Records
---
Amino acid sequence: MKEKTSITLSDDLLADIDRLAGSRSRSAFIERVLRRYLKQRARAAMDAKELEKINEAAESLNNEVTDILQYQIAEE
């Protein structure tokens, strides 16, 4: 379902939209761009969460490796 809305944009931005939209309507072009932007934002948020988990696991693994190396040095 689509809902009609009104926004105010600068003339130069509208000129760029018209140029890039080609034969598509402004509305179709803006909707496509906004959907892509929102999808990228969601992906970036998910990537940030995954990176946080990786970093948490990496710290634990690094600590284990350090313990093992210290044990091996002590054995020599």
---
Amino acid sequence: MNLVKRKKPSLVLGWLLLFTLLFGFLEVFSFITLNYLLPKGKTDFLLFTPPPTPTKQEYMSYLTQRDPDLGWPTTKAFAENSIDSSGSRPNVNFSIPGHECLSLYGDSFVYGSEVSHVEAWSNILSGLLGCRVGNFGVPGYGSDQALLRFKRNKKDVAPKTFFGIFPDNFKRNVNQYRYFIQKSNSNPFLFKPRFVIRPSGDLQLIRLPEIPLKNFDRFLMEPQQYLQYEYFIPESSDGPIPLRFPFLWRSWKLINKPEIKNWLLGMPEWHDFVQPEHASGALEVTSAITSQFIDECRKRKKECLIIIFPARNDFDYFRKTGNFALKKFMDKLDELNLQYLNLTPEISNELKEKSICEILANRDQCSGHFGPEGNRLIAKILFQHLTKGLAMERSLNPFNHSIH
């Protein structure tokens, strides 16, 4: 009896040691996986590592350079010749601002990132039309910032205006601190305003956050205390996962991310954000922003058109299934009687059997924005629509015919 009793503690300790070793192995493996083995650039938005605390000089420079209403473009962007005196991307064909025949608003796909001013689709379209196109797209913008920029730009008297929508906008429109959804840019100062929907159904502007430098460390540890309307709070259901102990638990949370599920199902990672009644309200907010943009157009007696740019995964999903990942958004636009052009089928028809990788800036990796060939293709498609002589009235259904 005594011998049996002596063996029991040893057995328990043995199992305890085995469990500890197994947990330690899995913890180390999870640490290595999260920090070193995941593909860089493709999973960064799912993980969160706080940026270094800015110095006083860096923070004061941010306050001096930032746009007080929109966050960016900064005054530095004007000095670097990425924007001209009117706030537009420089137009090579018509360099002097004024008398624009067309103005553009949106994000980097409107701006034409990763190509030169000469190669940008807005400049090519300007040459085809024989008049100045004012490109007021800004890289990294949400639809909310584009709307606010349009409202503020009273000098824009172009008779026609395009409002660009890119799938990432749905996430940006419920975000206030860009580092939470794209840390690869390594800029800790990209704060932005956003809109929320009041109980009455109207849009309410939540202005650019003000975070004092002395509270910046605390903000990074407890962002929910400073950003009441930020959807992507780290550790929340759709927020990024902090890279800290226990790493095994963080790995489990990563595996259960909706983005991972969508990837396994062959759907775009942002698919949930364009579904009705998603917890973020991204579809409803983006639809309301788009509607308000068109309302502003009508007040200024402009003819306006919504341009829907495809993401690579969005395009692949269409070619594979014949369905549009943004179908629910387009249904909303139909309900609101808003005119739009979905570029996905148009680009697919032009490419025929070719992959979309052929027209992206990083062809080998099949990533990035549209390259020179892609910009020429977009300019060609939009020029064809503008010169068909079709009226803008909804009854003629000129621009969204391709989706029905």
